[in-house]
Amino acid sequence: MMPYTSCCIISLFTRQAGCASLGEGALVLGSTSRPCQLVALLKREWQMERAFQTALWLLQPEVVFILGDVFDEGKWSSSQAWADDVERFQTMFRHPAHVQLRVVAGNHDVGFHYQMNTYKIKRFEKVFNPERLFSWKGINFVLVNSVAMEGDGCDICSGAEAELLEISQQLNCSQEQEHHPGRCGDRGPLPASAPVLLQHFPLYRRSDAHCSGEDAAPPAERGIPFQERYDVLSREASRKLLWWLRPRLVLSGHTHHACEVLHGAGVLEVSVPSFSWRNRNDPSFIMGSFTPTDYVLAKCPMPREDTVLTTYCGAAACLVVLTLVHVRLLASPLHVGWNLLRKFKTT
Asked: TM segments (predicted)?
Protein backbone atom coordinates (compact mmCIF):
# COMPACT_ATOMS: atom_id res chain seq x y z
CA MET A 1 0.00 0.00 0.00
CA MET A 2 1.32 3.41 -0.94
CA PRO A 3 2.03 5.65 2.07
CA TYR A 4 -0.08 8.75 2.42
CA THR A 5 0.08 11.97 4.38
CA SER A 6 -2.94 13.70 5.88
CA CYS A 7 -2.77 17.49 5.84
CA CYS A 8 -4.96 20.21 7.24
CA ILE A 9 -4.76 23.38 5.12
CA ILE A 10 -5.96 26.65 6.61
CA SER A 11 -6.26 30.03 4.96
CA LEU A 12 -5.41 32.29 7.83
CA PHE A 13 -5.63 35.95 8.56
CA THR A 14 -5.60 37.09 12.09
CA ARG A 15 -5.42 39.69 14.76
CA GLN A 16 -7.22 42.92 15.30
CA ALA A 17 -6.11 46.07 17.02
CA GLY A 18 -8.17 49.20 17.22
CA CYS A 19 -10.31 49.25 14.08
CA ALA A 20 -8.04 46.99 12.02
CA SER A 21 -9.70 44.07 10.30
CA LEU A 22 -9.30 40.46 11.22
CA GLY A 23 -8.34 38.29 8.39
CA GLU A 24 -8.05 34.72 7.42
CA GLY A 25 -7.55 32.68 10.39
CA ALA A 26 -6.22 33.06 13.81
CA LEU A 27 -4.96 35.37 16.29
CA VAL A 28 -3.99 38.13 18.43
CA LEU A 29 -5.36 41.03 20.36
CA GLY A 30 -3.64 44.35 20.42
CA SER A 31 -4.95 47.30 22.36
CA THR A 32 -8.51 48.33 21.62
CA SER A 33 -10.36 51.23 23.09
CA ARG A 34 -14.02 50.27 22.68
CA PRO A 35 -15.66 47.31 24.45
CA CYS A 36 -17.66 46.29 21.37
CA GLN A 37 -14.42 45.76 19.48
CA LEU A 38 -12.97 43.73 22.32
CA VAL A 39 -16.06 41.52 22.50
CA ALA A 40 -16.05 40.96 18.73
CA LEU A 41 -12.36 40.11 18.74
CA LEU A 42 -12.55 37.70 21.66
CA LYS A 43 -15.55 35.99 20.08
CA ARG A 44 -13.70 35.43 16.82
CA GLU A 45 -10.48 34.38 18.47
CA TRP A 46 -12.46 31.89 20.54
CA GLN A 47 -14.07 30.57 17.33
CA MET A 48 -10.73 30.06 15.59
CA GLU A 49 -9.04 28.46 18.57
CA ARG A 50 -11.88 26.03 19.21
CA ALA A 51 -12.19 25.18 15.50
CA PHE A 52 -8.46 24.48 15.21
CA GLN A 53 -8.25 22.40 18.38
CA THR A 54 -11.35 20.43 17.40
CA ALA A 55 -9.94 19.77 13.92
CA LEU A 56 -6.69 18.48 15.43
CA TRP A 57 -8.57 16.16 17.78
CA LEU A 58 -11.10 14.91 15.25
CA LEU A 59 -9.06 14.67 12.04
CA GLN A 60 -5.59 14.04 13.51
CA PRO A 61 -3.57 15.52 10.62
CA GLU A 62 0.15 14.89 10.37
CA VAL A 63 0.88 18.29 8.82
CA VAL A 64 -0.89 21.64 9.12
CA PHE A 65 -0.30 24.37 6.53
CA ILE A 66 -1.37 27.95 7.20
CA LEU A 67 -1.49 30.05 4.04
CA GLY A 68 -0.38 33.40 5.41
CA ASP A 69 -1.68 36.56 7.10
CA VAL A 70 -1.14 35.15 10.55
CA PHE A 71 -0.91 38.67 12.00
CA ASP A 72 -3.02 41.54 10.78
CA GLU A 73 -0.53 44.19 11.85
CA GLY A 74 2.72 42.27 11.46
CA LYS A 75 3.79 44.67 8.75
CA TRP A 76 4.10 47.53 11.24
CA SER A 77 4.13 45.89 14.69
CA SER A 78 6.72 47.01 17.22
CA SER A 79 9.03 44.38 18.68
CA GLN A 80 6.93 44.10 21.83
CA ALA A 81 3.63 43.93 19.93
CA TRP A 82 5.11 41.27 17.67
CA ALA A 83 6.27 39.20 20.64
CA ASP A 84 2.82 39.48 22.23
CA ASP A 85 1.15 38.43 18.98
CA VAL A 86 3.43 35.45 18.56
CA GLU A 87 2.71 34.29 22.11
CA ARG A 88 -1.04 34.58 21.48
CA PHE A 89 -0.74 32.66 18.20
CA GLN A 90 1.22 29.86 19.83
CA THR A 91 -1.47 29.56 22.49
CA MET A 92 -4.36 29.46 20.06
CA PHE A 93 -2.67 27.18 17.54
CA ARG A 94 -0.93 24.88 19.98
CA HIS A 95 -0.43 21.37 18.63
CA PRO A 96 1.21 18.07 19.60
CA ALA A 97 4.92 17.73 18.93
CA HIS A 98 4.35 15.08 16.28
CA VAL A 99 2.19 17.44 14.16
CA GLN A 100 4.15 19.52 11.67
CA LEU A 101 3.00 23.16 11.46
CA ARG A 102 4.14 25.08 8.37
CA VAL A 103 3.29 28.71 7.67
CA VAL A 104 3.85 30.88 4.60
CA ALA A 105 4.18 34.65 4.79
CA GLY A 106 1.30 36.92 3.81
CA ASN A 107 1.13 40.63 3.11
CA HIS A 108 -0.25 41.31 6.61
CA ASP A 109 2.73 39.50 8.14
CA VAL A 110 5.57 41.30 6.33
CA GLY A 111 3.79 43.93 4.23
CA PHE A 112 3.23 44.23 0.52
CA HIS A 113 6.32 44.46 -1.64
CA TYR A 114 6.74 48.20 -1.04
CA GLN A 115 6.44 47.70 2.75
CA MET A 116 8.51 44.57 3.38
CA ASN A 117 12.17 44.62 4.30
CA THR A 118 14.82 42.17 5.44
CA TYR A 119 14.09 42.82 9.11
CA LYS A 120 10.40 41.88 8.76
CA ILE A 121 11.21 38.79 6.70
CA LYS A 122 13.82 37.58 9.22
CA ARG A 123 11.50 38.30 12.14
CA PHE A 124 8.81 36.18 10.56
CA GLU A 125 11.21 33.36 9.65
CA LYS A 126 12.62 33.31 13.17
CA VAL A 127 9.20 32.25 14.44
CA PHE A 128 8.08 30.09 11.53
CA ASN A 129 10.33 27.55 9.85
CA PRO A 130 11.83 29.27 6.78
CA GLU A 131 12.36 25.97 4.94
CA ARG A 132 10.93 26.37 1.44
CA LEU A 133 11.15 22.73 0.39
CA PHE A 134 9.48 20.32 2.75
CA SER A 135 9.47 16.60 1.97
CA TRP A 136 7.32 14.26 4.04
CA LYS A 137 6.71 10.55 3.39
CA GLY A 138 7.77 10.80 -0.24
CA ILE A 139 5.75 13.95 -0.96
CA ASN A 140 7.33 17.30 -1.85
CA PHE A 141 5.75 20.55 -0.66
CA VAL A 142 7.13 23.92 -1.79
CA LEU A 143 6.26 26.92 0.38
CA VAL A 144 6.61 30.15 -1.59
CA ASN A 145 7.07 33.64 -0.22
CA SER A 146 4.66 35.03 -2.80
CA VAL A 147 5.02 38.57 -1.42
CA ALA A 148 8.57 38.53 -2.82
CA MET A 149 7.47 37.49 -6.33
CA GLU A 150 7.31 41.09 -7.53
CA GLY A 151 9.85 40.53 -10.30
CA ASP A 152 11.49 43.95 -10.02
CA GLY A 153 14.97 42.67 -9.12
CA CYS A 154 14.97 43.91 -5.51
CA ASP A 155 17.36 42.09 -3.17
CA ILE A 156 14.62 40.17 -1.38
CA CYS A 157 12.88 39.28 -4.66
CA SER A 158 16.13 38.18 -6.32
CA GLY A 159 17.00 36.03 -3.31
CA ALA A 160 13.55 34.42 -3.31
CA GLU A 161 13.75 33.63 -7.02
CA ALA A 162 17.27 32.21 -6.69
CA GLU A 163 16.03 29.95 -3.89
CA LEU A 164 13.15 28.71 -6.04
CA LEU A 165 15.48 28.05 -8.97
CA GLU A 166 17.66 25.94 -6.70
CA ILE A 167 14.58 24.00 -5.59
CA SER A 168 13.59 23.58 -9.24
CA GLN A 169 16.97 22.02 -9.99
CA GLN A 170 16.64 19.66 -7.03
CA LEU A 171 13.17 18.56 -8.13
CA ASN A 172 14.27 18.02 -11.73
CA CYS A 173 17.29 16.08 -10.54
CA SER A 174 15.16 13.81 -8.36
CA GLN A 175 12.83 12.99 -11.24
CA GLU A 176 15.74 12.17 -13.56
CA GLN A 177 17.69 10.21 -10.96
CA GLU A 178 16.11 6.91 -11.99
CA HIS A 179 17.41 7.24 -15.56
CA HIS A 180 20.64 9.10 -14.76
CA PRO A 181 22.08 7.82 -11.46
CA GLY A 182 24.52 10.18 -9.80
CA ARG A 183 23.13 13.23 -11.58
CA CYS A 184 22.31 14.89 -8.25
CA GLY A 185 25.96 14.91 -7.20
CA ASP A 186 26.56 15.23 -3.49
CA ARG A 187 23.01 16.31 -2.74
CA GLY A 188 20.69 13.64 -1.50
CA PRO A 189 17.93 13.03 -4.06
CA LEU A 190 14.41 14.15 -3.24
CA PRO A 191 11.39 11.91 -3.66
CA ALA A 192 10.53 11.63 -7.36
CA SER A 193 7.18 13.31 -6.88
CA ALA A 194 5.76 16.43 -8.51
CA PRO A 195 5.43 19.05 -5.76
CA VAL A 196 2.43 20.65 -4.10
CA LEU A 197 2.79 24.43 -4.16
CA LEU A 198 1.59 26.48 -1.17
CA GLN A 199 1.52 30.28 -1.13
CA HIS A 200 -0.47 33.25 0.10
CA PHE A 201 -1.24 35.09 -3.15
CA PRO A 202 -3.14 33.15 -5.82
CA LEU A 203 -1.62 32.67 -9.24
CA TYR A 204 -2.81 35.14 -11.84
CA ARG A 205 -6.46 35.03 -12.84
CA ARG A 206 -8.55 37.84 -14.21
CA SER A 207 -11.27 37.64 -11.58
CA ASP A 208 -13.45 35.20 -9.66
CA ALA A 209 -16.04 35.25 -12.44
CA HIS A 210 -15.77 31.49 -13.02
CA CYS A 211 -15.77 30.55 -9.33
CA SER A 212 -18.88 28.97 -7.86
CA GLY A 213 -20.18 27.44 -4.67
CA GLU A 214 -21.57 28.70 -1.38
CA ASP A 215 -18.16 29.91 -0.18
CA ALA A 216 -17.15 31.62 -3.42
CA ALA A 217 -17.10 35.41 -3.60
CA PRO A 218 -20.53 37.09 -3.55
CA PRO A 219 -22.03 37.24 -7.08
CA ALA A 220 -21.72 41.02 -7.17
CA GLU A 221 -17.94 40.78 -6.55
CA ARG A 222 -17.01 37.88 -8.82
CA GLY A 223 -16.69 39.94 -11.99
CA ILE A 224 -14.47 42.64 -10.46
CA PRO A 225 -11.05 42.45 -12.19
CA PHE A 226 -8.12 41.48 -9.98
CA GLN A 227 -5.11 43.75 -9.74
CA GLU A 228 -1.80 42.06 -10.44
CA ARG A 229 0.70 42.13 -7.56
CA TYR A 230 -2.10 43.10 -5.16
CA ASP A 231 -4.98 40.64 -5.46
CA VAL A 232 -3.06 37.98 -7.39
CA LEU A 233 0.47 37.38 -8.61
CA SER A 234 1.50 38.88 -11.92
CA ARG A 235 1.25 36.88 -15.14
CA GLU A 236 5.03 36.70 -15.31
CA ALA A 237 5.49 35.47 -11.74
CA SER A 238 2.74 32.89 -12.21
CA ARG A 239 4.36 31.55 -15.39
CA LYS A 240 7.72 31.31 -13.61
CA LEU A 241 6.32 29.29 -10.71
CA LEU A 242 4.47 26.89 -13.00
CA TRP A 243 7.50 26.47 -15.28
CA TRP A 244 10.18 26.19 -12.62
CA LEU A 245 8.36 23.92 -10.18
CA ARG A 246 5.91 21.96 -12.39
CA PRO A 247 3.45 21.50 -9.49
CA ARG A 248 0.61 19.00 -9.55
CA LEU A 249 -1.48 21.17 -7.21
CA VAL A 250 -1.43 24.80 -6.04
CA LEU A 251 -3.02 25.91 -2.76
CA SER A 252 -3.43 29.63 -2.04
CA GLY A 253 -5.27 32.07 0.23
CA HIS A 254 -5.54 35.88 0.37
CA THR A 255 -8.95 36.42 -1.28
CA HIS A 256 -10.99 35.03 1.69
CA HIS A 257 -13.17 33.16 -0.82
CA ALA A 258 -13.05 29.69 -2.35
CA CYS A 259 -12.21 29.12 -5.99
CA GLU A 260 -10.86 26.37 -8.23
CA VAL A 261 -8.87 27.30 -11.33
CA LEU A 262 -7.03 25.24 -13.93
CA HIS A 263 -3.70 26.64 -15.15
CA GLY A 264 -1.55 25.68 -18.10
CA ALA A 265 -1.68 21.96 -18.79
CA GLY A 266 -4.43 21.28 -16.28
CA VAL A 267 -2.70 22.26 -13.01
CA LEU A 268 -5.40 22.76 -10.39
CA GLU A 269 -5.25 25.72 -8.03
CA VAL A 270 -7.53 25.77 -4.99
CA SER A 271 -8.01 29.07 -3.21
CA VAL A 272 -8.87 28.22 0.39
CA PRO A 273 -11.54 30.42 2.01
CA SER A 274 -11.10 32.27 5.26
CA PHE A 275 -10.89 30.47 8.59
CA SER A 276 -12.38 33.39 10.53
CA TRP A 277 -15.87 34.71 11.22
CA ARG A 278 -14.47 38.18 10.60
CA ASN A 279 -14.32 37.54 6.86
CA ARG A 280 -17.05 34.97 6.36
CA ASN A 281 -20.24 33.85 8.06
CA ASP A 282 -19.31 30.33 6.87
CA PRO A 283 -15.54 29.78 7.34
CA SER A 284 -13.93 26.49 6.35
CA PHE A 285 -10.63 24.74 5.73
CA ILE A 286 -9.29 21.94 3.55
CA MET A 287 -8.37 18.44 4.68
CA GLY A 288 -6.12 16.65 2.22
CA SER A 289 -4.69 13.16 1.86
CA PHE A 290 -1.58 12.96 -0.31
CA THR A 291 0.49 10.19 -1.85
CA PRO A 292 3.53 10.67 -4.11
CA THR A 293 1.27 10.39 -7.17
CA ASP A 294 -2.21 11.39 -6.08
CA TYR A 295 -4.22 13.49 -3.66
CA VAL A 296 -7.76 13.86 -2.35
CA LEU A 297 -9.10 17.12 -0.93
CA ALA A 298 -12.17 17.58 1.25
CA LYS A 299 -13.62 20.88 2.35
CA CYS A 300 -14.46 21.02 6.05
CA PRO A 301 -17.13 23.65 6.89
CA MET A 302 -17.19 25.12 10.36
CA PRO A 303 -20.19 26.38 12.37
CA ARG A 304 -21.83 29.44 10.88
CA GLU A 305 -21.60 32.57 12.97
CA ASP A 306 -25.31 33.40 12.72
CA THR A 307 -26.29 29.85 13.74
CA VAL A 308 -24.02 29.91 16.79
CA LEU A 309 -25.18 33.36 17.87
CA THR A 310 -28.86 32.41 17.41
CA THR A 311 -28.35 29.25 19.46
CA TYR A 312 -26.64 31.13 22.31
CA CYS A 313 -29.22 33.94 22.28
CA GLY A 314 -32.06 31.42 22.35
CA ALA A 315 -30.43 29.52 25.22
CA ALA A 316 -29.86 32.78 27.11
CA ALA A 317 -33.51 33.81 26.65
CA CYS A 318 -34.70 30.44 27.95
CA LEU A 319 -32.39 30.76 30.95
CA VAL A 320 -33.74 34.23 31.75
CA VAL A 321 -37.34 32.99 31.56
CA LEU A 322 -36.61 29.99 33.79
CA THR A 323 -34.83 32.24 36.31
CA LEU A 324 -37.76 34.66 36.45
CA VAL A 325 -40.17 31.78 36.92
CA HIS A 326 -38.00 30.33 39.66
CA VAL A 327 -37.95 33.59 41.65
CA ARG A 328 -41.69 34.04 41.00
CA LEU A 329 -41.30 37.25 39.03
CA LEU A 330 -42.95 35.54 36.09
CA ALA A 331 -45.84 33.10 36.17
CA SER A 332 -45.00 29.61 35.05
CA PRO A 333 -46.42 28.87 31.57
CA LEU A 334 -47.71 25.54 32.94
CA HIS A 335 -49.45 27.31 35.82
CA VAL A 336 -51.01 29.86 33.46
CA GLY A 337 -52.16 27.08 31.14
CA TRP A 338 -53.64 25.11 34.02
CA ASN A 339 -55.61 28.14 35.26
CA LEU A 340 -56.96 28.81 31.80
CA LEU A 341 -58.01 25.20 31.46
CA ARG A 342 -59.82 25.26 34.82
CA LYS A 343 -61.53 28.51 33.89
CA PHE A 344 -62.67 27.00 30.60
CA LYS A 345 -64.09 23.91 32.34
CA THR A 346 -66.08 25.95 34.85
CA THR A 347 -67.75 28.04 32.17
From this structure: 309-331
